[in-house]
Amino acid sequence: MGNGPYESLSSSQRRVVVDTVTERYLDLGDSIARYEFGVHVKMANRGLWEEVEGGGKLKDRGGERCKDDTWLEDVPEWRREGGEEEEVR
C-alpha cells in the first residue's frame, strides 16, 4: 500500500496523524488488540508506523500500559540470552 497521502502531508499535519494513531493504540484495552492495530498500521504505511513507534517513543509514552507489548522492543526478550542480544540466524 505504500505511504499513500500521508507522505504528502505537511509536518504539522503529520504530527496530528501520529498523535491520533498513538492515542488510538494506547486506548486499546489489551495487548492483542494493540498488536493487531500496530501490525495493520505497519503493513498499510510503514513510514507512519516508524514515526509512531520510532526508537521506543510509543513504549515510553504508553508506560505501564505497554509493559507487555514486547513487539515494541528493539530486541524482544525471547531473543535475548542473559540480558544481551543473541545473534539471529
- Determine the fraction of residues in helical runs and give it as a percent range: 40-55%
What percent of residues are in strands? under 5%
The number of distinct structural domains comes to: 1
Secondary-structure element string? HHHHEE
C-alpha geometry: globular
- Report low-confidence residues grouped into runs of 5 or more: none
Q: How many distinct helices? A: 4
Report the biggest beta sheet as strand number plus sense, adding barrel if it closes. Answer: 2 strands, antiparallel
Distance between the termini: 29 Å
Number of strands: 2
Question: What radius of gyration results from the CA coordinates?
Answer: 14 Å
Structural category is mainly alpha
- The overall average pLDDT, rounded, is 84
Q: Within the largest sheet, what's the order of strands?
A: 1-2
Give a topology summary.
Elements lengths: L10 H17 L3 H14 L1 H8 L3 H6 L17 E2 L2 E2 L4
Antiparallel strand pairs: 1-2
Helix pairs in contact: 1-3, 2-3
General description of the model:
The chain is mainly alpha-helical and 89 residues long. The protein has one domain. 51% of the residues lie in helices and 4% in strands. The protein contains 4 helices and 2 strands. The chain has a two-stranded antiparallel sheet with strand order 1-2. Strand 1 and strand 2 form a beta hairpin. The longest helix has 17 residues.
Short account of what is shown:
This protein has 89 residues and is mainly α.
